[in-house]
Specification:
CATH superfamily of the largest domain: Metalloenzyme, LuxS/M16 peptidase-like
Oligomer: single chain
Number of helices: 35
CATH topology of the largest domain: Cytochrome Bc1 Complex, Chain A, domain 1
Strand order of the largest sheet: 22-23-21-24-20-25-26
Strand content: 15-25%
Number of strands: 26
CATH architecture of the largest domain: 2-Layer Sandwich
Largest sheet: 7 strands, mixed
Length: about 950
């Protein structure tokens, strides 16, 4: 498994280095220490109760007892990353991360993921950044011993099992990851160019975490074993246990599972001087992109060093959202830019401050750069205002508490502080860093570190993508493995046969699921209250049953356009006033439309929730739809449409929807619509859609978090009670087409030079209230929905064709579809489809084994407490339950529904709802290379279309 997400995790101000922030005295006074694990001292400092122990072999353990939910997070950090790689071995630390999931002495390859899945594990993954590698999952608390058994075997006994086949397979997987996340992704090679300009040859940060094809492929089995002997030893690792456990029991089990692992020698320190740039470096890069991009980057102080916090705050002031200086100047006022991002990436060997601006079509990067320079110069001349400073600190504060909301992210935060600051309880000192920031100290940091002569400038423009020479993919090793040397055969840790037996679960737990009470307001609005005491955070989701499906004929994208305009000003607040007020609260407000509904979502501190919800109520009930803002939004949506054409997976999704629903259907278009519809949209159309569709009787307000029912009811009545439905009649959604026999075909969209093919294999699917819904979900989990599923296992873990490929049923109130999506290496496009369809045929013909059904069923049911662990997810989920027409007791009924799933019902679900003959294949890739493969695959008819879906005649 591992690294299912991008490998270089940027520490964007609120993550990692700067994830601690200002805790106001009012908030501190309300923090419920007993429930959350957080305690507040008399001085108002935020702290986390923990105990740190060290075993005799040097293994560190940090225990964070937290009984909010019956869950335990296991977060293992190995203190090694690219900073520890040898010359010519870029990407090694990340490749090793993959290998740690490839089997151990006591847990066969692929079994650990299945075991975690069957136990109800969530957030199971690993990641590598420049300074460390981590491995994590969260389990129900009665599986404490199971989690320690798995983690200890990964750390201590992977080296006994790893072989040439496992290495070759993961080299293929990682190289596919590079193709997907760097080479076939817009701006992927641009980001590499930034780091190559910042860091000289030999510096561990130069190659970014993923490394190069040549270096990844050059790694040998003896290199893997040597790296393990040096770095993957108990004295170079730390485990955080956070959640519902008894410390005395945990300590006994920790000694049992980790105490006998042998310590390694002293770990060589990572040493690399931070480069000094004394003259501006300028680089031009061409990429297969629609919109040009400007990147500016500077070397800045290492994490937690003087200046680091000040530059974090500077990042927020310059580019931390709609209220920031560069967003106002470049996106809002001049409309030169599509997006702006500014961040201090805090690292151990020296940090990087970066400005990233994506230009609007046809706009000049030189002009954008001049305006960025002007804003930096203004910050040099005049310190930021106290309001700007407090706004940045409010955002940092909210992000910190959000990191503490889940035991999994809390555990990672503690590990982060432990490695980077030497103290897992550093949150109080980190808090003090931000409290010490002043307007003048921000100005001083900008003067000292962000000088024009000290930076790298990378301008990326549309053109050819220049990649390194192709490195062949060797065939998978076959036959007898070569003999290992005595050193390679030597075991690092003692032979302990008792480790072969998987620990049994503790006493069965009552399934702890949130419940939402529905309350009808007099105007027809449904209030759903989901109590979630703990940290002082609250989330809300206002949902209306009106989405893309409700777009009038000839007006694709109108639902999304309307939703996006809600935040662009109300009858009493301008767009910028609204942005500033949201930022002042440290809140997050978003609005968007999906297939069947539209949502406005809010997350904030409890102390600011009333003010934040008042803003949500205002944008929902009193949007302005001003002409000036409409023209700005048109330009932004046209640019977003251009960006969409850059992304193979997005193109595949749009073409797939056209194929399922037919031309002209509301769902046959991108959520953005098309260029003609965007240009034709006027304020009258937006207002009409809003009046017809945003009605209290077809809406629900979900409030989840540390709010009582009485508080939720009072808020809803006072802020939404006067909302009355408009007189306009509601527009009826069109009839939904059904899958038709014989609809199968292959559609090819040419993307010359693409190193991967983006696949979407699709058909119409069942609705949410289908009687077989539970069996469908269980079947899909085993077929292609989970990491351990048959399709992903075969194409990734066995063949090495892909970084990941998954299936999904989207079961809505009125529409449903089935899709298998992922990217595969260009030269195996046909072979990947052949294997995919073989797995589908096997499930339809033979069903699943009882053990597969049990594992998939548990993965659906036992994971619910972990999946529904944050206010935002709870609010969004309960809004979705209401929108799809589920009753108030839907969550409570889930255990019985899943318990009723059997191998026979799974087989029936596969035969009924995986229409193998009707599946449509969409392939976006290099036509010259994939067309012969698809012709040989034999599925007919075969069509050629452009990125807009227009048929191309042969």
């Amino acid at each position: 498994m591992s690294s299912k997400r991008l490998v270089r995790i940027a520490s964007l101000t609120a993550i990692g280095a700067a994830c601690a922030g200002l805790l106001s005295p009012a908030l501190a006074a309300s923090a419920p220490a007993a429930a959350s694990g957080a305690v507040v001292s008399a001085e108002g400092r935020l702290a986390v109760k923990f105990e740190k122990i060290r075993l005799a072999n040097g293994f560190e353990v940090i225990l964070v007892e937290d009984h909010r939910l019956p869950l335990v997070a296991f977060n293992l950090w190995v203190h090694a990353g690219p900073q520890n790689e040898a010359k010519g071995q870029t990407g090694f630390a990340h490749l090793f991360e993959h290998l740690l999931f490839a089997g151990t002495k006591h847990i066969p390859r692929g079994e650990a993921d299945k075991i975690v899945e069957a136990a109800g594990g969530t957030d199971a993954n690993g990641s590598t950044n420049f300074d460390r590698t981590n491995y994590f999952f969260t389990l129900p608390s009665n599986q404490l011993e199971l989690g320690l058994w798995i983690k200890s075997d990964m750390l201590g006994y992977m080296i006994d099992k790893v072989d040439a086949v496992a290495l070759a397979n993961q080299q293929d997987v990682v190289r596919n990851e590079r193709r997907q996340s760097v080479e076939n992704r817009p701006y992927g090679i641009v980001e590499e160019a930034v780091y190559q300009a910042l860091f000289p040859e030999g510096h561990p940060y130069r190659a970014t975490v993923i490394g190069s094809h040549a270096d990844i492929q050059s790694i040998k089995l003896e290199d893997v074993k040597a790296f393990s002997r040096t770095y993957y030893r108990p004295n170079n690792a730390t485990l955080v246990l956070a959640g519902d456990f008894k410390p005395a029991e945990a300590k006994q089990l920790l000694q049992k599972y980790f105490g006998t692992l042998k310590a390694g020698g002293p770990v060589p320190p990572a040493q690399a001087a931070q480069p000094l740039i004394t003259a501006e470096k300028r680089v031009k890069v061409s990429d297969r992109i629609e919109l040009s991009r400007l990147n500016l980057a500077w070397h800045t102080p290492a994490i937690f060093q003087p200046g680091d916090a000040d530059l974090d705050v500077a990042g927020y002031i310059l580019g931390g959202g709609k209220a920031s200086r560069l967003h106002k100047k470049l996106v809002y006022e001049t409309q030169l830019a599509q997006t702006v991002q500014v961040a201090q990436e805090s690292l151990a060997l020296g940090s990087v401050f970066g400005v990233e601006v994506v230009a609007r079509p046809g706009k000049s990067l030189d002009e954008i750069e001049a305006l960025v320079d002007a804003q930096l110069a203004e910050l040099v001349q005049t310190p930021p205002s106290n309001e700007e400073l407090q706004r940045a600190l409010a955002a940092i504060e909210t992000n910190l508490l959000s990191r503490m909301e889940k035991v999994g992210t809390l555990a990672d935060l503690m590990n982060h502080y432990n490695q980077m600051a030497g103290d897992p309880g550093f949150v109080g000192q980190d808090l003090a860093r931000y409290r010490a920031v002043t307007p003048e100290s921000v100005r001083a940091a900008v003067i000292k570190y962000l000088g024009k002569q000290k930076r790298v400038v990378v301008q990326a423009t549309p053109g050819d993508k220049v990649l390194a020479a192709e490195v062949p993919t060797p065939p998978m090793p076959t036959g007898k493995a070569p003999a290992l040397s005595a050193a390679e055969r030597a075991q690092l840790n003692p032979n302990e046969p008792w480790r072969n037996k998987q620990p049994k679960a503790g006493k069965a737990l009552a399934l702890s699921l949130p419940s939402g009470k529905r309350i009808a307001l007099s105007n027809g609005l449904t209030l759903v209250h989901v109590p979630k005491p703990g940290l002082p955070l609250v989330s809300a989701s206002l949902i209306v049953r009106a989405g893309q499906l409700n777009n009038p004929a000839g007006q694709p994208g109108l639902a999304g356009f309307t939703a996006s305009m809600l935040q662009e000003g109300t009858q009493t607040r301008s767009a910028q006033q609204l942005a500033d007020q949201i930022a002042n609260l440290g809140a997050q407000l978003s609005s968007a439309a999906s297939l069947e509904d539209s949502r406005i979502e809010l997350s904030s501190l409890k102390s600011n929730f009333r003010q934040g919800l008042a803003l949500l109520a205002d944008v929902a009930q009193h949007p302005a739809f001003s002409e000036e803002e409409l023209q700005r939004k048109k330009a932004a949506r046209l640019a977003a449409l251009a960006q969409q054409r850059e992304q193979p997976a997005a193109v595949a999704a749009v073409i797939a929807n056209q194929a399922i629903y037919g031309e002209g259907h509301p769902l046959a278009f991108s959520a953005l619509g098309n260029e003609a519809a965007i240009q034709a949209t006027d304020a009258a159309a937006l207002r009409q859609f809003w009046q017809q569709q945003y009605r209290p009787e077809q809406a629900a307000l979900v409030i989840a978090g540390d709010v009582s029912e009485a508080e939720a009811r009072e808020l809803a009545e006072s802020l939404f009670g006067a909302w009355k439905p408009a007189a306009a009649a509601q527009v009826q959604a069109p009839a939904i087409p059904q899958a038709k026999p014989g609809a199968a075909r292959v559609i090819v969209v040419d993307k010359p030079g693409a190193p991967q093919t983006a696949l979407a294999v699709v058909s119409a699917g069942p609705l949410a209230k289908d009687p077989q819904a539970a069996a469908i979900q269980v079947m899909n989990s085993a077929l292609g929905g989970a990491f351990t599923s048959r399709i992903n296992h075969q194409l990734r873990e066995v063949k090495g064709y892909t970084y990941g490929i998954y299936s999904n049923y989207q079961m809505g109130r009125q529409v449903g579809d089935f899709a298998i999506r992922g990217s595969v290496r260009t030269d195996v496009t046909g072979a990947a489809l052949k294997d995919m369809f073989a797995e589908i045929a096997a499930v339809r013909a033979q069903g699943l084994q009882p053990a597969e059904v049990e594992r998939a069923r548990n993965a659906q049911l036992l994971t619910l407490p972990g999946l529904l662990a944050t206010n935002h997810v709870v609010a969004a989920s309960f809004a979705g339950f209401w929108s799809r027409g589920f009753g108030e007791d839907y969550v409570a009924q889930l255990p019985a529904r899943f318990a009723a799933v059997t191998p026979a019902s799974v087989l029936q679900a596969a035969k009924t709802h995986v229409d193998a003959e009707g599946l449509i294949v969409v392939a976006v890739g290099d036509k010259a290379k994939i067309l012969p493969q698809l012709q040989a695959f034999g599925r007919k008819p075969l069509e050629l279309r452009d990125a807009e879906g227009r048929l191309i005649k042969p």
